[in-house]
Amino acid sequence: MSDVQEAITRAHREEWARVVAGLTKRFGDLDIAEEAAAESFATAVERWPADGVPPSPGAWLTTTATRKAIDRIRRENKRDDKQREAQPVYDTTPPHLIHDDRLRLIFTCCHPALAAESRVALTLRMVGGLTVPEIARAFLVPESTMGQRITRAKAKIKAARIPYRVPSAEDLPARVSGVLTVLFLAFNEGYLATGSGTGPVRQDLTAEAIRLTRLIRALLPDHGEVTGLLALMLLTEARRPARVSAEGELVALDEQDRALWDAPLIAEGHRLVRERLAARAAPGRYQILAAINAVHTSAREIRETDWSQILALYDQLVRLDPSPIVALNRAIALAELDGPEAALELVDSLGDRLAGYHPYHATRADLLRRLDHGEDARAAYDRAIELAGNTAETAALSRRRDQLR
């Protein structure tokens, strides 16, 4: 039974986006696509334990979902109307662009007719397969609010006849920013998963985000932020083998075994960063974050890290993105150069804006620990543990807190 459950979980990770994208292409309705895909997985939960896992789970799920969709259309007795509604989504992608149903689905969900927050939420649901609670946590909003947001976005796509296709070459640059935001958030959810019942790292999400970013770079090879995001993902993914211990605990960067890092991914990421530096164009947010990660992955051990260069890059990033989260990350670099006391002063100034953000409390706890403020550090660790949604991260925070005793 456990093997079957594992197969179902793996199929959901690997096949959800493909099934939804295929149904959307055929029926032109996101509601039908999502509902039929969900029903096909529910049927798998019922039948696979008795019948066994099919030789090709993806094909079985697609066939089952297609039948479910047809049954729904027949029940509603609106086949002709549905087909007319679907017509705009069959617009063909120009021959010079990439044919990929999941990439088309992303651009559909990220259409500028939708509000920015709705684009991200809808894509994480339809392409990333994240649950509504997972997406709500990422946006720090109630589940009901997020559910309504996704429902309205799907209705808008249907009402506005938004086509299911990759935009023309002329429209791509204006559309790509929202897509990059979605891919970045999907990658982050995979890199440090927050959903209950999932592992601490969701490699399926990180791999799919990287795959789709590669496709977009093939469409826009000279777009600096596309290249920057791909480099950032590669350099981050390269560290994944060293990020979780055998005991299931998140391993901080300064404690990781760097021999486990993926050298080919690091080499590719560094090459992309150098490519953008050679372009001598003003870097965007993703390019700067990629450069920061390039500095980290250039050091053979933590003590060789060039913190002054990292701080300078964060200074540059703050000017582009003066968010409290960027300021928090900058404070971590500042602590390595000017000491934990200077960094703690900066971190404390962010408290009002980051009170519900667990990395804020974790960072503050580590700085207080370094300053031997044990009682305050313990309270900060407790708050970080309370807010953290990742089991591996909770284990690491608990260990550090317990060491204070």
Automatic annotation (TrEMBL):
Which molecular-function annotations from GO does this UniProt entry contain? DNA binding; sigma factor activity
Instruction: Name all RNA polymerase sigma factor 70 region 4 type domain ranges.
Output: 106-157
Family matches, as InterPro entries:
DUF6596, RNA_pol_sigma70_r2, RNA_pol_sigma70_r4_t2, RNA_pol_sigma_r2, RNA_pol_sigma_r3/r4-like, TPR-like_helical_dom_sf, WH-like_DNA-bd_sf
Return one Gene Ontology term, BP aspect.
DNA-templated transcription initiation
Q: Quick check: keyword S-adenosyl-L-methionine in the entry?
A: no
SUPFAM superfamilies membership: Sigma2 domain of RNA polymerase sigma factors, Sigma3 and sigma4 domains of RNA polymerase sigma factors, TPR-like
Q: Where is this region: Disordered?
A: 71-93
Basic and acidic residues bias locations: 71-85
Domain of life (superkingdom): Bacteria
Q: Does the keyword Plastid apply?
A: no
- Annotated coiled-coil positions are none
Q: Where is the DUF6596 domain?
A: 175-275
Question: RNA polymerase sigma-70 region domain: from which residue to which, for each copy?
Answer: 18-78
PANTHER family (UniProt xref): BLL6612 PROTEIN (PTHR47756:SF2), BLL6612 PROTEIN-RELATED (PTHR47756)
Family, according to the entry, reads as follows: Belongs to the sigma-70 factor family. ECF subfamily.
Entry protein name: RNA polymerase sigma factor
The protein's organism comes out as: Amycolatopsis rubida
